[in-house]
Design goal:
Blueprint: H1 3-17, H2 23-48, H3 56-72, H4 75-80, H5 89-112, H6 119-137, E1 147-148, E2 153-155, E3 158-160, H7 163-185, H8 188-195, H9 200-205, H10 210-236, E4 238-239, H11 246-259, H12 264-289, H13 295-310, H14 316-324, E5 352-363, E6 366-377, E7 381-385, H15 392-398, E8 407-412, E9 415-416, H16 422-427, E10 430-432, H17 445-451, H18 461-465, H19 470-486, H20 502-515, E11 520-524, H21 532-547, E12 551-556, H22 559-565, E13 568-573, E14 576-581, H23 583-588, H24 590-596
Parallel strand pairs: 7-12, 7-13, 10-11, 11-12
Antiparallel strand pairs: 1-4, 2-3, 5-6, 5-8, 8-9, 13-14
Helix pairs in contact: 2-7, 2-10, 2-11, 2-12, 3-5, 3-6, 3-10, 5-10, 8-17, 11-12, 12-13, 17-19, 17-20, 19-20
This protein binds adenosine-5'-diphosphate (ADP) and magnesium ion.
Amino acid sequence: MTQRRLTLGAVFLLLALWGFLPEFTVTMLNYIGLYALVAVGLVMLTGVGGMTSFGQAAFVGLGAYATAWFCTAPAAESLVGLAPGSAALPWVGLLVGLVLSATVAWLLGAVTVRLSGHYLPLGTIAWGLSLYFLFGNLEFLGGHTGLAGLPALSLAGFDLRSVRELGLLIWAVLLLTLWALHNLLDSREGRAIRALKTGRVMAESMGVDTARYRIKVFVLAALLASLSGWMYAHLQRFVNPTPFNLNIGIEYLFMAVVGGAGHLWGAVLGAALITLMKQYLQDILPSLLGSSGNFEVIVFGLLMLLVLQRFSDGLWPSLARLVNRYLRAPPLASGDGGRGLTQRQLPAKDSVVLGASGVSKRFGGLLANNQVDLDVRAGEIHALIGPNGAGKSTFFNMISGVDDPSSGVVKLLGRDMLGQSSRAFAAGGLGRTFQHVRLLGPRSVLDNVALGAHLRGHHGWIASMLRLDRAEEAALMAEARRQIERCDLGPQMHETAASLALGQQRIVEIARALTGHPSVLLLDEPAAGLPHMEKQALGRLLTQLRDEGMAILVVEHDMEFVMNIADRVTVLEFGQVIAHGTPAQVQVDPKVVAAYLGGVEVEFKP
Ligand code: ADP
Ligand code: MG
């Protein structure tokens, strides 16, 4: 039995039993389905994309109120030309709700998503509260009484009048959503969404437009919430503001977190647990304690604390581990394919790939880079060295688009890169690694490396959800495998990045950069903290890449490492170039010996 079969089996079992389940069970399942739809949006937002929202209930409200108003207001008739009671009205309501939610989410997202730290969650609380009070205070939405008299949904001539009938629609929508999101996460676009979590600089360097992706995830989550609100309204047949307040927004977040915010099925598990627990506690506590009151809220809060304390990743991972013991692992995809990816022509040997001239960077009163000239040619390893605080990392940022120079020119393959983002540098053929390794720890090496090929694919979210991207995806994965093999990481391909030693993680970053097929490779202190053997392996890999025609710039601290592999060396001190030449020339330069080595003679191995 495989995971897929188990899932399909459970779905068919649910379908087969649907007609025989007691009415109460069906009602509970309906609510679980509706809540799970919202929670799964939060999984995408929080667990996958790394953004927390307390305000999803407000989007459920937008979806519910949009359809409620269209189905009940007399003014709706003159607006859309449908008589009251027309079976098409709820569908107009759905469309309006989705458009409205997407618009509001886009606007709010454009403002809040750029906030960092605590400000984003606080921002979502702010608009969650505002929308809730808006629902309650608008005359035409019925104020705190709400709107009643919603019709039943009618689908292809069938009235979904009973909870059992409507439940089929709810669960069909939920399961289709899970399928589409599963596909999305298993694609190039999904890797880009996951990359949001490791921070802007890394994702942007891989060519991911982080601001755009963040807003898109935000809109996606809002659309799912709105869709849930639409079905909720037609299940209840009336709406009032209560189910869309901030408390419920917090509960949705609980569902995602308790279930497992990093897993789509965690949303379903969380929704089920919390719905059942609330129901059960509401029934049992008053009789247990002999008096009525909202005791369930207290017990509920304590239970949440316990679960979060014990299972910080939510319950789904533990459950999945337990079940997976009895399941056959799916076959790992084989390594064929790899055609159809556009190959960049490497520049001719010895031509300048990346050139900086007169680059200066001022931080307030400090001149971190002062008129630095440096070029990197195809087929050479150029090392930039200098003592701590010399301005190496600052220069690295100037020539990779992370930061703009105060003055000076940076050219990539002859193109002036003034004011360009690191995304533009990536698109122009620059690959880079990070001084502090930035990988997605829980993801496999293969997955991490495949992110490097982001700019080499073009299929969007919808195509990925519908699995229309499979040929391209196979080609991207084949390319990732090829680079992993080339970097001698084949045996670790399916291990998680976090389980590797630091040296290997650095090599994973190089493989990731290579997957983007760069013309120039920038490495910030690649040998730092590596044991001797791993340093040698790294040196061999870099010389091999150089011989294949890659232009490589290594910013390093480790003199011995650099002198063994570099063709040319540039030495920085206090932001200024003090020497430049072959390793042999630089080593005997008195200025270098004095500045960099503090006047102490150091012996270099040949
Ligand atoms: P290196 O990488 O060679 O060790 P850096 O480029 O990190 O050196 O730093 C060069 C100098 O610039 C240091 O004095 C550092 O304190 C300063 N510096 C670096 N980044 C900033 C910044 N964002 N703001 C202010 N000063 C900075
Ligand atoms: Mg540095």
